[in-house]
Task: structure prediction
Amino acid sequence: MPFSSNEDRDFPISKFESMLKTNDVYFFDADDFEDIIHHYLDLGKVALAKKAIKIGLEQHTTSTNLKLLQIEVLIFENRLDVAEQMLDELAALETSNEEIYIQRANIYSKKDNHSMAIVLLKEALAHANDNADIYSLIGMEYLFLDNYSEAKDFFIKCLAEDPEDYSALYNIIYCFDFLEDHDGAIAYLNTYLELNPYNEVGWHQMGKQFFHKKMFKEALAAFDFAIISDDTFIGAYLEKGKVLEKMERYNEAIENYELTLGLDDPTSFAYLRIGKCHEKLGHDNIAKQYYYKTVHEDPLLDKGWIAITDFYLKQYNYQKAKYYINKALNIDSENIAYWKRCAEINKQLHLYEEADISYQKTIELGNYELSTWTSWCDILVKIGEFESAVHVMLQALEFYPNEALLEYRIAGLYYTLSDSLKGRFHLKNALSDNYEAHTVMEELFPSIFSRKTVKNIITDFKKASI
Result:
C-alpha cells in the first residue's frame, strides 16, 4: 500500500516502529525520515534516532538533511572529529547551506570556542531564510561569554522575527536583570506590548520588573493585564499575591493564591504563602494547617519546614522547633540561617554541645556577624571550653578589631585561664574601646569581675579618663 502524505502525521513513526519489530523493510520519503528522527531526538531516544538515520541514509544516500542529522547526533555524543570530517565533505558540495555553518558552530561551542561559533553563526545568517533560530543561537553563545549586552540584542532580534518565542523573551529579561537595567527592561517590554497588547507573558515580566523596583501599584496593574490576557495564567495570580502581601492586603493575597489551587494541582508555594498570610492576620491555627499542607505536598521544600520551625519558635516550643529545624537541615545543610536557628534552639534547650556545633557550622559557612561570634563564645564558656573560646574570640578580633564586646570576653577568658598578664592587656583594650560595655564581663565572668585587681584596673581607667 503506498504511503500517502495526507495520512495521519504519526503514521510514519508507527510504521517505522512496526518495521523494527517485524524486521521487514519499508520505504520512507527522506522527509518522513527527518520527522521520525526529530521525534526520537525530541524524546531523548538517541538510539532509535540513530537507527532511523542509518536506515534513512541506506535508502537516501545523498540526502544532505539526513547527513546533517547524523552530524548533530555525532556532536551530541562528542564525536567531534568524525562530525567535522563529514561537515568538510558536505561543505565541498554545498556552500550555501546554513545548517552546515550552524553545526560547525555547534562543534566550536562544544570546544568552548564561543567567539568562533559566533563568527560561523553570523555567516549562517547570510544563507538563511528564517533567521530567528540563528539569532537565538548567537544570543546563547554571547551568554557563554558573559556578554549580556550583545546577547540581549540578539535575543531581541530573535523575538522581533518570532513574537511568540517566549524563551527568547525570558532570555531578554534575564540579560536586563543581570545588567541590573530594570528601567531598560520596562522600556523594552512597553515597546513589545504595544505590538502584542494581549501577551500574558509580556505583562507578567513587566509586573516582575515593577515588583523589583518596589513599584507595587504598577506591578499589580501589570499582573492584572496578564490575567485579563489569560485568566488561567497561574504565574500571574501567584505574583499578584506576592505584591498584595507587600501591600499588606493579606486577604486579597489569599484569594489569589487560592485561585491557583482550583486552576491546577495545588502547589507547595501557594500553600506556604497562604499560611504566611494567615499568620500575618493572626490566624495561627489556620497558618499551621497550611504549613503542614505545604510539606505534605512537597516534603523536600525546606522553606515549608522552616515555616513550621518559626511557628513553634514564636510559641517558645523549642522541642518541636528542634525537630523541624532538623528536617530543614536534612534538605539544605549549607544554609547559614538554618544553622543559626538551630544554634539558638539548642541554646534554649540547654543543649550546649549541640549549640557549639551549630555555631561552628554557621561560621564555617561564612557567617561572620559579631553576634554569631559572641554567642558561640558564650556557649563555649558555659561548657568550660575556655581555650577554645579564646581561639574563637581571637579569630573574631581579626574581623572586628577594637571591638570591646570581644576584648572583654578575651580578658575574662585569660583571667580564667590564670594568664593575668594577657587578661590585663585585653581588659585595658576593652576599656579604651568602650568603657560602658564592661558590664559584659560582669555578666559572663562574675567571679573574675569581683577580683580586687580587676576592679582596680577599671576604677583607675575611669579616674584617668575624667
